[in-house]
Amino acid sequence: MKNLRQPGEKCLLCLQNFATQTNSHILTKSAFNKLLGPKSDRKGMQFKINSELIQNYNASTKEVIPDTTYIQDIPKEDFLFCPECESYFGIIEDIAVPFFKNYRRNEKFDLQYAEFIHINNRSFARLKIDYPLIAFLFVYIQFFRAAVSKSLKDFKLPNVVQKGLSQLLLQYKSTSKSDFIGKIKQPFYAKIEYPIAILTAERFVDDTENFVLFLPSYPPNIIFADQFILMLFPTLEYSLKMDPVLPNVDQSLIKIGVMPYAEWIEFRKGLLQTILKIYKP
Ligand SMILES: [Zn+2]
């Protein structure tokens, strides 16, 4: 088991400063906290994905009865990063979060943030973010934090991918928003090394019906984050083999796949089945 971090250890991004920051959210709270419900009645839930989940497997009906833990907050952890790196994450989050939170209001797209597009008869929200790379970095942050987290003991990225994300994040490390925008404008990377996919449903019946789930490691890496499913692919070829349309593969476009509600529910079920296979009840 991974031991929790102690005071006096180095930051897991820059590897230089002391990781004095406490209460680092593994997922960006402001983007993925609808499931917590109204402040007065927080009731979000998180699945435990370990052997305890398997104990709730009903062999005769082949159904998983998830062991749900009600959570008041998105998972967080102490001593992962230094204040400098944490504030850099904040710069990226401040720019990206409004797009994830506001691209749709009352089931309609807010044209300030997104437009509706079709590719091969599938629906997508194209985010109108000035530099799509920022949205890539935002998603990378989620995977990187989850991978270095000690409390999510089963969540791992391939070593080369984790290293790649860390190098990429460090390349754009900035102390202010203007500093960051200056760096992002320079096309260091023409191509995207690690494609990502983002999925959501066209509507939600109950905001609090979702959950936070970090799927144990294997490509693509998957984080179920409230109303979004985030995927990270180890290579371009891998992503295109899995789905030629869904992944975001270059800096010209960032899109969110929008599934019909029924399909979303099926997909969620599929994720749980996948977990069952990993843990082999
Ligand atoms: Zn640092």
Task: Please characterize this protein's 3D structure.
There is one protein chain. A hairpin with a 6-residue loop joins strand 12 (211-214) and strand 13 (221-225). The strands form four sheets. Strands 2, 5, 9, 10, 11, 12, 13, 14, 15 and 16 form a ten-stranded mixed sheet that branches. The protein has helices at residues 51-54, 83-102, 132-148, 159-171, 177-185, 236-242, 261-279, and strands at residues 24-25, 44-47, 57-58, 63-64, 68-71, 76-77, 104-105, 108-109, 114-119, 122-127, 191-201, 211-214, 221-225, 228-232, 248-250, 255-259. The longest helix has 20 residues, at 83-102. It has seven helices and 16 strands. The radius of gyration is 18 Å and the shape is globular. With 281 residues, it is of the alpha+beta class. The model has no long low-confidence stretch (mean pLDDT 86). Helix 2 packs across helix 3 and helix 3 (132-148) packs across helix 4 (159-171). The structure holds zinc ion (ZN).
In short:
The chain is α+β, with helices and mostly antiparallel strands. 32% of the residues lie in helices and 23% in strands. The protein contains seven helices and 16 strands.
